[in-house]
## 1
Amino acid sequence: MSSGLPYLNKLRKPELVEIAEKTDLQEYDEYNKGELVAALDKHLSDNRAIFSSDSSLSEFYTRLAGTNRRGSPVKREARVEVSPLLEKKTPKTPVLEKKTPGRRSTKTKEEPIESDDAAVTPAPKKTPASASRSTVRSVRSVVVESASAYLPPSPAVVTDAIDQQTTKMREGLESAWTASGIIERSHALRSTLSSLKAVETIFVLLETGFILAELVPMRYLTTTPAVPAVSLPAISLRVPDLFVLLTANFWAPFMLWFVTNLGLPLVAAYFINLSWQAAASSQGPLRRQRQAAEHASFDPLTFNIVKALLAYKVYAHHWDYASLFSPYSIKKANFAIPGQWKAVLTGNAIGVIGTLYEAILRRS
């Protein structure tokens, strides 16, 4: 790994492909980004003499040359200073012998014995200052040697390692996010909800949930004991009383809501389908059947208009379908809908506007 690898990691893949094309890198289109970065790093390092003059690669070769100049710190050995030894030469003094009678006086000289190779020099004596300095240098050299065995040789190596680990972590997170499939599911949900059918279905489901909650009472079942250890209070459990399904108090309001808000509007939207007729008449005879099948079987504009008229007539003016439903059923169904009949009219207005907007987009 060279010191130019972090520079290549910071580039986008189109920039790396451009460098690969410029430097004649072989089979670069089969690599992903990590493999392309490693291949370019080796290719540019091996062919430094060829591409170093290229101005677009100057930063890469500047980093590469900067790391080559910086080497690991030299481990210096401890140097012990030795105080110079000044050899003092003592003057040679002749030895005089006393003259004795009857004997001739003799004069002997003591000459120093010199040896070329066998001369032994005494070990120099260290002064206290030089001994302390040498001890400090010895300890310092030992500390430097032990620290250099564990520390990285240069800060550039640390930076490269951090950049490499960051790149691996980012690539791992991107791979995990892609493999989870959240993006595909979100796009599928968005495509499903981006239609007028989905909006109308949501309105109907909300109305169904509220009317069932109003007509089906909750029955007390039991109470769970409290758990003081985890500060959990006693909780009373209630379940829906399904026996109400056997009474007319449930079916009369529910059937009134079903006929008014869903049944009759769907029947009218199926037989009075303006969008289906327009799609079938605008195409040739060979494509009418297929084009008609692609469009909705129920006209949303007719559905919303009929539903708004029935809700206003039944819930606002208490029209009882020629005494088929009692005033109790009308009030119960009206109160079960959140916002009552005014909310139904508001939802139908939204549906009409959505239908017209969808038709405009389809024509444009």
## 2
Amino acid sequence: MKNIRVIAATLALGTGMVAGVGAEAKGPASHPQAEAQALDLAKQAIALRSVRGPGNQTPQVAALYKSALVAGGFADGDVTVTPVDDTAYLIARWHGSDPKAKPLVISGHMDVVEAKPSDWQRDPFTPVVENGYLFGRGATDMKLDGTLAIAALIELRREGYKPRRDIVIEFSGDEETTMKTSAIIAQKLADADLVLNIDGGGGTLDEATAKPKFWTWQGAEKTYADFELTVTNPGGHSSAPRKVNAINQLAAALVRIGNYQFKPELSDLTRAYFVQAAKYEDPETGAAMKAFAADPTDKQAIATLTANPATIGKIGTTCVATMINGGHALNALPQRATANINCRIFPGHKLPEIMAELKTVAADPAITFKDVTEGSIATDASPMRADFIAAITRGMKTINPGVPVFPSMASGASDAMFSRALGVPAYGASPVFIKDSEDFSHGLNERTPISNIQPAITYYLSVFADLSK
């Protein structure tokens, strides 16, 4: 462990918190060695440019994590790093006392989105702790969360805990791009009892007080899809225009699709979310959320939620045009025009079903549709398992008593979808709290309050033990 005393001191000064972000300092950290290790590992991981393409250092992140796990008590043979193309994935197993029990899987990823140093205030791959924040690409998504889980598992071993079922921690190497390793891992761990995705869920801090408002766990996610629309035409000289023009045809279809709203939908999970989250919204939005939860055909509620970019994706499938290309010369009629429609599909629907609906909306048989989706698969919501809900609720109460806990559905995709597709329940349950205004995942100057470290370790110790008994 590098400079553990210095790191522990940094945590004590930088957090000033116990039992949740925003609390006053009440004493020394309860797990100082694990907390220091989590921050140290996160800084080392951030310094490795784990971005797809030339110079991808995801394999080095995997080696870093393996080294920490082996030093923390895992057998070398139980921690495997497997190269795949320019990346790699890691699977580590802590054997339980009952070989017949299905394993608990803790899931994360090591890769990050590209970051150009010239665009950032600080170099994205030079970790910096400043003003109580850890800065760097991956500080939020999700190198700190990954090292928190690693440090917590090592702490459990240090304290002498003996799991009944195997605990498997795994990290994919291309979650931000093709998700090839994500699918491989899910197949290898298809016998899991439950997957705890530490890259999903999380808490919201009050913008004014920085105290926890509420915490959500993720039980479902919308399916990512891309559909390519193409119109072809013989073309000709621009001085002799024709009624049928490839660009015009495509444009008209895109307008129809843009004006179309898929049927609003509600699930048990999203109903629970709307009822609870309504309390923390402005009066108009909150009233609409309650009304929609009571009646998903309520036109006024639908209109209000549809008009809000933060809520439209929560009430059904959305599809938007994201790219367009057409024509081949300034003085020629277009021979070809193409566009991409990106969809986020409500759980329970398959991609061909949505593409067929888009064809109907486009209302032009001359337009061809092609599914060009990569790295995504449709999945249903995970069941609202009582043992999981009890474990994460208990874990959250140990660090933030009184903070509301309720489910949510993610609009983006994660590794969890591959496990759900195989019938394995998967849940996002990160303990990290952040202000909405400071969530810079995938964006510039990514950062996370290091005050999360102490409570997160305590939370993971509780949850990992509860779910592996």
